[in-house]
Amino acid sequence: RMYCVLTAATNKQTMAEAPPQPDWVTGEHLTGTTIVAVEFADGVVIGADSRTSTGTYVANRVTDKLTKLTDNIYCCRSGSAADTQAIADIVRYYLELHSVEMDDEPAVEVAASIFREFCYKNRDNLTAGIICAGYDKKKGGQVFSIPLGGLVLRRPFAIGGSGSTFLYGHCDKTFKEGMTKDECVEFVRNAIALAISRDGSSGGVIRTAVITAEGVERAVVPGDKIPVFYND
Q1: SS3 211
Q2: What is the CA radius of gyration of the chain?
Q3: Are 130 and 70 in contact (CB under 8 A)?
Q4: What is the pLDDT of residues 123-178, one digit of tens each?
């Protein structure tokens, strides 16, 4: 009995004296992130970086933050990796049910409304900033921004994540109505490249997707091919 008491006391003392663990061991997995989406005449272009961080540690440098919901609707995820993955899975499930009930492909606005429902009702427990974008036959290409708190806004372009704080001036200056598909792709890639150069939580590669009536065209810009806007 004396041995057990001493052992328990020693273990308790050892736990109390143990040094605190670094933040990359105990920190929440965050997508850090720069996400961008923009509408054009025939659809939308979406893009994101690929860095996932845990505190100051890069947990994954090739994360895919462009998540498929239906064949023509995607979401860009920023915030807590676990929260955004769970919400995307839930929305995908409800969109599948909606498609079966209506015997038709769901509208982009429906997907954004489901995101709003879950993000708003759970706003005190979730860290999730979402851009929902896609194409439907009723309204064409659409971009909806769902920031922290669950507000939903349809915008001609949307940015989000920690890297977006560096992009407002650039986007306001360079965005213009009526851009072509190629101009939109360049707009998205340049915006993410600028954020990567300034934001420590954004990095890796640049993933883009062009969503139109014909389907989805995905592309990746590797790290050594990312545009650079300054000289060393």
Answers
A1: strand
A2: 21
A3: no
A4: 999 999 999 999 999 999 999 999 999 999 999 999 999 999 999 999 999 999 99
Could you confirm whether 212 is annotated as catalytic? Answer: no
Buried b (16+ CB within 10 A) or exposed e, 31-52: bbbbbbbbbbebbbbbbbbbbb
- Answer whether 178's CB lies under 8 Å from 199's CB: no
Exposed/middle/buried for 232, CB within 10 Å: 0-12, 13-18, 19+?
A: exposed
Q: In what order do the strands lie in the sheet with 73-79?
A: 66-70, 73-79, 128-136, 140-146, 153-154
Burial code (b: 16+ CB inside 10 Å, e: under 16) for 81-100 equals bebbeebbeebbebbeebee
Rounded to two decimals, what is the model's pTM? Answer: 0.85
Tokens standing for residue 152: 């939903």
* Partners of 144 in beta bridges: 132, 154
Name the nearest CA neighbour of 31 among 98, 73, 76. 76
Annotated catalytic residue, options 31, 33, 34, 212: 33
Return the beta strands (E) in the chain as ranges: 29-30, 35-40, 43-48, 52-54, 57-60, 66-70, 73-79, 128-136, 140-146, 153-154, 157-160, 206-212, 215-221
